[in-house]
Amino acid sequence: MNPARIPLGRSIITCAALWLGACGLRVDAAPEQPTHDARVTLQRSSCYGNCPSYTVTAAADGQISFEGHLHVRTGSARGHATPAQLANILAAVEQVGFRSMHDSYVSHDDGCEPVMSDMPGIKITVVDSEGSKSVDFYNGCAGATADAVRPRIEQLANTIDRQLDTARWIGKPAAPGDAERADR
Q: Does any domain span residue 122?
């Protein structure tokens, strides 16, 4: 056996293994486009102050619908998301463990100890190939149960806002004194 052939043979085998491995990684990687039936909805509810209240939905075809309720600049609007933006949202859904969260964090029965009033809420609904899942999180919910989920649900809501650029429709809420002066 020629010793010069052994490294070449090993090189060929190593290259083939890497090439085949790369093909396998591509199959296991997250799809570039969400599944045909994927849809993500973020609802933010108002608070005692001037918290923006709105609903934004992104569908798998890239269509975005925005419905402003209170303290936003735009009432209704439409937009478009790229496949990469939708993939980023769905990756964030997985990253925060969304499907493992309880459906509700709004009352004493949900583990809120105590429940403070006049706070905004976040409700996120994801519909995809795994089915439909909603998490309703009230920011007035306090205690260990809520504290464990709060950073993850806020991270997901902020990712949805960033990826769908909801700031273009929300605008900057007026300071409390500004709203009173505008009414005069």
A: yes
Q: Are residues 132 and 151 in the same domain?
A: yes
Q: CA-CA distance, 15 to 4, in Å (whole number)? A: 17
| 143 φ, ψ (degrees, to nearest 5) | 110, 175
The tokens for 167 are 């700031």
pLDDT in tens, 35-52: 568 999 999 999 999 999
Average pLDDT of 5-16?
A: 40
Q: Which two tokens stand for residue 152?
A: 């993850």
Domain of 121, CATH number, reads 3.30.1560.10
Rg (CA), the chain: 23
* One domain for residues 61 and 117: yes
Which structural domain, as residue segments, surrounds residue 90?
39-171
Backbone angles phi, psi at 114, to 5 degrees: -90, -170
Residue 180 has pLDDT above 60, yes or no: no
Residue type, 178: D
